[in-house]
Design brief:
- By secondary structure, this protein is mainly β.
- It has 1 helix and 5 strands.
- A hairpin with a 7-residue loop joins strand 1 (13-23) and strand 2 (31-38).
- It is globular.
Length: 73
């Protein structure tokens, strides 16, 4: 079983995009991922929607507030 990587609704964090990737991990759906260095210094790979994936580049800041989806700063 694979890890979802989708942020939980109650999560809150901010960070900087280090890398973008995408793949068909289940064989039929395209998933988009951002590798993010959080303000705590940790690095996380998170699943995001197409609009956010298309709108960010390496070095851009993103923020995730509790109760909302990640968004560009």
């Amino acid at each position: 079983m694979s890890k979802s990587r989708k942020p939980a609704p109650q999560d809150a964090w901010d960070g900087v995009v280090l890398d973008k990737s995408r793949g068909m991990t289940d064989g039929s759906n395209m998933y988009r991922y951002l590798t993010v260095r959080l303000s705590t210094g940790a690095t996380e790979k998170i699943r995001v929607d197409r609009d956010l994936w298309n709108s960010v580049a390496k070095g851009d800041g993103i923020v995730k507030q509790a109760g909302s989806d990640p968004m560009r700063k």
